[in-house]
Amino acid sequence: MKFELADNLLSYLSAQGAEDVTLDLEEIPSNCCLGRLPEMKISLESPPNSDEYRHFEVGGIRIHLSKLLRTQETLKLFLTGLGPFKKVEASGVNLVL
What we know:
The chain is mostly beta strands. 10% of the residues lie in helices and 55% in strands. Strand 4 and strand 5 form a beta hairpin.
């Protein structure tokens, strides 16, 4: 698996004091016939149950990727938002209904 980190991501994580990025699957209940809507949750901390994750180290950052997420060959991590509203986003993850 390949990782691409945006240039400003490492400086943002350093400013936040974060050394871990966790990508997890969160299922949101829905009233429609699907029953649930999968959503990706990104947090800047290590996961509570590390056995349920694949672990990588890239650029001095530990990335914890839920085994429930399906990924493409390359996972891209980048920042969105401005000022205090910045957050980490990812592309290269396929969410399956």
